[in-house]
Write a structure and sequence with these properties.
Order of helices and strands: HHHHEHEEHE
Strand content: 5-15%
Distance between the termini: 58 Å
Helix content: 40-55%
Radius of gyration: 23 Å
Number of helices: 6
Strand order of the largest sheet: 2-3-1-4
């Protein structure tokens, strides 16, 4: 019974992390300085609903095992006190952790610092707007990764990225930055620019 409970707990942790790994990877890539690896877990995105479902099933079964009535066997033996990993408190911590991991794409934006720079225009005619198709974005975390990389360039006025539309719209001062520099910044994140 002890090993069965431990396996359920570790399985739920792994599936919860795996369900959001495609969204956590861009943030970890920035923190570790390996931004090109950010899109390497994008292949997990189609599996996300299944991993979330599996996490819910495993946690539901673990809670069922924890809360079901115990059959009492009368014996003259010493009662084994359950380890911390077999308590409701530990299962509660794991459940909260799983919820936080599966919800990560919805609050990942808060982990990116604002690096938008103040741009002074000498002429409105220097403003250019482009739309770039981008492959590999799977969630709002991916959008933020691209926005963060492009906003680090001088002359960027506005950046909007959409994983649903698979594109980024960028407004910039072409006297301070060019399209190739913008493409290079996006490519450095690991996402691919669609060629038209």
């Amino acid at each position: 019974m002890k090993t069965k409970s431990n396996k359920l707990v570790w399985t739920s942790i792994l599936t919860a992390i795996a369900s959001s790994l495609c969204c956590i990877a861009p943030l970890l890539a920035i923190v570790s300085g390996v931004t090109g690896a950010a899109s390497s877990f994008a292949w997990l995105e189609p599996l996300r609903p299944y991993l979330i479902g599996f996490t819910v099933i495993v946690l539901g079964f673990a809670w069922y095992q924890q809360l079901k009535p115990k059959t009492e066997i009368h014996c003259n033996c010493d009662e084994d006190k359950p380890s911390f990993m077999q308590t409701k408190k530990f299962l509660s911590i794991i459940t909260i952790f799983a919820i936080l991991m599966t919800a990560f794409p919805y609050y990942s934006k808060s982990f990116y610092r604002n690096n938008k720079k103040q741009v002074t225009l000498s002429s409105i005619s220097q403003v250019q707007k482009i739309d770039l198709g981008i492959e590999g974005m799977t969630c709002t975390g991916c959008e933020e990764h691209i926005i963060h990389a492009v906003q680090a360039l001088d002359g960027i006025l506005q950046v909007d990225a959409s994983y649903k539309n698979e594109k980024a719209t960028i407004e910039f001062d072409h006297s301070k930055v060019n399209i190739n520099e913008i493409k290079k910044a996006i490519a450095s994140t690991g996402y691919k620019i669609k060629e038209k």
